[in-house]
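**Entry details**
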Amino acid sequence: MIWFSIAGLIWGASFLFIELALTFLTPIGVAFGRTFFGALAMVVAMLIFRSKLPTSFEAWKHLTIAGILMSSIPFVLFAYAQTQVTSALAAIINAVTPITTVIVLLVAFRTEKLKPNVVAGIVIGLLGVLVVLGAWQGFGENNPLAIVAMLTAVFLYGIGTPYVRKYVTPLKLATEVSVFGQIGTAALTLLPVYLLSGPLITAVPDIQSVGAIVTLGALGSGVAYLLYYKILDVVGSAIASSVTYITPVIAVILGVILLGEKLHWYEPVGGVIVILGAAISQGSVLTLFRKKTIA
């Protein structure tokens, strides 16, 4: 699916944009900036399509909760983590999202059955996380708080994805309205925290840094979420969350080439294991195997 690939490419580049934006913004500033510019992009989309905002309290309640789960808190956590770890590592950890989504579907929403492939996929995926972090050497140079922040963020994504599917999708809002509702309310919840938490900027920005936060918001939090909602509506939360398969590949390439980041051998190896676990837990590998067997 072309929209699936485009969303993955944009989110892969987002980790590079976060790194650049952090040169003049705090983590909370980055989170606010990306939701603000993302919301502006959706305002433009709504004007073009002449979309109408919902008027019910119920709709705004679910959009606000989705915004907190999918944007406000995770954006702050990942931005904070990237002050301590490389963008490549952050993207690889982000690939755990399909696994956390399956766990949440299994435990909280109970829409996933405890099948052998689900158990195997979760176990393999979690082992992959340990490999990515170099657990056998005490997590190496990685800051424990950064690790906790990233894992918390992906669990929030894991909760948010099925939440959107269950409570936001049935509202039958235009896609651009759903995205605006999520990131617009996220921006509003982040604004007072941003204003009261410290300096608005930490350095004088250059054009590249300003361009990074604008692009991160308009594309990474606007257009990409627009595509994500369309995918979610068509194929469901488990498959939609697997857009993160593409993300780490793009992020690692950009991090190494453009930022000069160094990879430990176990990070990409662990990333492959994580993606394999996610694919197994969602039945992707089994489906592919069956198709080849039938052929």
About this structure: The mean pLDDT is 87. Residues 2-109+143-262 form one domain.
